[in-house]
């Protein structure tokens, strides 16, 4: 049977916008050693703004490049895709798109107006042997090719969430190790890591690499110590499932993430992780 005190803990958590799907997860939160974060949508707002559009010589105009990118990203739910469609800002005609294919951790491959379009990161360009230019500005870069020819890039910038630095600071004071795993570039990952004071940053990871990083952390701790993974679920449901406690951002997160998670943070605030641990500690002291 489940001790009654657990219901009190789960109830208290739900009042703070933290949905805990079982008393075993509440109990596990007492023994957290690592708090591992996804970046986009978890520590950052996932609301990117286009800050630069660069076309390669004798190619398209900036407006044409943005239009192609918006069409290429038409079917994607990734926050990057959304920001490009918002920057384009015009009504779109779906009949111009054929054969949409999203390549997890890379970008998209699709036909627009009968042309083969790739839109994604340097990994995608390297995979397709397309030579790309170095972006002039810091930020997440989406490179675009048309029929195998490099056409230019779009730079977009995200912002860290208001409470992210405080959340990391509190967790570190509680003795937790804070780690960020991201599919984004080293430059972007390290900049966010410095801003937030994270203990470790691992960048340019594919979804399966994120699972491998969790496994590496597992080998560095005692069996009693637990790993929490916090994500928004775009590409990271395997990691949510693999961690001892998978936490999803409920507002921004995908339905798949909310389904796969053990704990859902309804307010999307990273500071709620420490709150959940505090509730777990209080619950344990009442129950035992
Ligand atoms: P994160 O770990 O930051 O949540 P993801 O695993 O979702 O990132 O994506 C990793 C990287 O893959 C992104 O930073 C981006 O470079 C690229 N990418 C993923 N999806 C898309 C897309 N729809 N369009 C362009 N690039 C994408
Ligand atoms: Mg993600």
From TrEMBL:
<protein>
    <recommendedName>
        <fullName>Cd(2+)-exporting ATPase</fullName>
    </recommendedName>
</protein>
<comment type="similarity">
    <text>Belongs to the cation transport ATPase (P-type) (TC 3.A.3) family. Type IB subfamily.</text>
</comment>
């Amino acid at each position: 049977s489940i001790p009654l005190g657990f219901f009190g803990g789960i109830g208290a958590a739900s009042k703070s916008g933290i949905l805990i799907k079982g008393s075993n997860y509440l109990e596990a939160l007492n023994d957290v050693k690592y708090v591992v974060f996804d970046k986009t949508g978890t520590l950052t707002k996932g609301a990117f703004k286009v800050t630069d559009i660069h076309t390669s010589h004798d190619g398209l105009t900036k407006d044409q490049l943005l239009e192609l990118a918006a069409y290429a990203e038409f079917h994607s739910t990734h926050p990057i895709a959304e920001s490009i469609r918002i920057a384009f800002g015009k009504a779109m005609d779906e009949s111009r798109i054929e054969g949409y294919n999203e390549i997890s951790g890379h970008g998209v491959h699709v036909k627009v107006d009968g042309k083969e379009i790739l839109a994604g990161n340097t990994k995608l360009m390297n995979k397709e042997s397309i030579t790309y230019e170095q972006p002039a500005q810091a930020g997440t870069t989406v490179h675009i090719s048309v029929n195998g020819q490099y056409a230019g890039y779009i730079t977009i910038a995200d912002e860290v969430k208001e409470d992210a630095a405080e959340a990391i600071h509190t967790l570190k004071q509680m003795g937790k190790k804070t780690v960020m795993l991201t599919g984004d570039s080293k430059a972007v990952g390290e900049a966010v890591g410095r801003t937030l004071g994270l203990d470790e940053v691992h960048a340019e990871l594919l979804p399966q690499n994120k699972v491998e990083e969790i496994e590496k952390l597992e080998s560095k701790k005692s069996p009693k110590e637990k790993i929490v993974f916090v994500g928004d679920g775009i590409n990271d449901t395997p990691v949510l499932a693999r961690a001892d406690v998978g936490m999803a951002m409920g507002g921004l997160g995908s339905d798949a993430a909310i389904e796969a998670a053990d704990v859902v943070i309804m307010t999307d605030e990273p500071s709620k992780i420490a709150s959940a641990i505090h509730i777990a500690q209080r619950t344990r002291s009442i129950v035992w």
